[in-house]
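Quick board copy: two proteins, each given as sequence then tokens.
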Amino acid sequence: MDSNRAQEIIDSFAMINVKYHGIPVYIQGINEDSETATVFPLDEMDHEQQVDLEGLFEDGP
């Protein structure tokens, strides 16, 4: 996923389904310098982590 789309998802009022290597996640923020995002799995909301943007994909239409 590119950083512009990730920021659009963060700014959206709608819940947009995103997965990181098949795991549903919530994107909290992005770091364009390192091309990473701060996310947490939806089933472990206290497990915040930095992941590469390339591993993020929208799930669904």
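And the next:
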Amino acid sequence: MAADRRIVIENCSIATVDADDTEYTSGHLVLAGDRIESLGAGKAPEGLENVVRRIDATGHLVTPGLVNTHHHFYQWITRGLATDHNLFDWLVALYPTWARIDERMTYAAAQGSLGMMARGGVTTAMDHHYVFPKGSGDLSGSIIRAAREMGVRFTLARGSMDRSEKDGGLPPDFAVETLEGALAATEATVDEHHDASFGAMTQVAVAPCSPFSVSTELMRQGAELARRKGVRLHTHGSETVEEEQFCKELFGMGPTDYFESTGWLGEDVWMAHCVHMNDSDIAAFARTRTGVAHCPSSNARLAAGIARVPDMLAAGVPVGLGVDGTASNESGELHTELRNALLINRLGAHREAALNARQALRLGTYGGAQVLGRAPEIGSLEPGKLADLVLWKLDTLAHASIADPVTALVFGAAAPVTASFVNGEQIVENGRLLHVDEDAIARSTRDEARRLARIAAQA
């Protein structure tokens, strides 16, 4: 859309999630091309030129688009398995199946994962993909293609594993890459797909999977590769008590100290989960500005524990929200994580003072933008930022009697998405995806899930 073409949105509540948490009870936004041109209280200015569309958003709350900071798209076709396992047992149960995925499966699974998030207000997504079976095709390319077709802004965290069972890791021997192969493939993915420009639709991060599936050398050289290429770093960290014990037995130190020893703390790094963090761990993350992807539903599903999010925020640690893979969060929706983050954290030490509605919304928007290194572009509604935003319908039975719209969004039932925009282009209308066929995706994900189950059973 050319920069001189405008969309005007009026008569809506607005939560900007800017530095001052500015809100408008009844306000307007003007989108010009891919940017937010202006916003404020009351009606839009008179006399605007080249207005191609006006939206009467009465009964709606407008927020920044949600930003997902941790996911594993391929797991969409292994949902509902190993439902009563802790993390390590769950991984051992599922790795043999995951190691049989191929390009057709990852494409369908990416469509399912992305579609479910986009319908629920996600405008920026990421995928931590770390399973690359030999001869499986162009898995990274298939995932990026699915995001491009859906119109969602996207970060591919190109993962890897090289520590298999024979080396003391959890993945089966046939499910890992070599050190040299993983590094070469990761660098090739960055070279082919990463876009460093403002407003980029596709970016790539370097993302060895976890301390218990990756060699120390892959961690070290992965960090060196990312910094040489100028891209971000991502991995799992401090997810379970068992992981902490594993690190102490294998490396003689806890996860945070191990990460620091391999170059994996810094403002260009974000970690998934970070459930078992002591005061010194949190201080190290705050000192280095290392980010955290908080995944409350997955942490509960796998009985991992409650992350100390209030303490992280108080210390200045950047924190965003993550769906995590849908084999450990079958709903696959990020907007439900706003509510779950607030409620689960109130079960912790801070009780009712842990998080409030606006802090939860910030985690899912600006916090996520910080974690992905894109806060200058997205995560809040401000003039000059990219026009990534969501219109939540709050005047139906589910929410109409809740006076405060942000409270309605976070505490209430999952709110319908009337419209979602990325770069000023609409990708969702009345809860339906505009650029892809949802019913066709449902069929293909079902078929690929069944095909994978057959292949795994025959192996």
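Board note added afterward: DSSP finds 14 helices and 17 strands in the chain.
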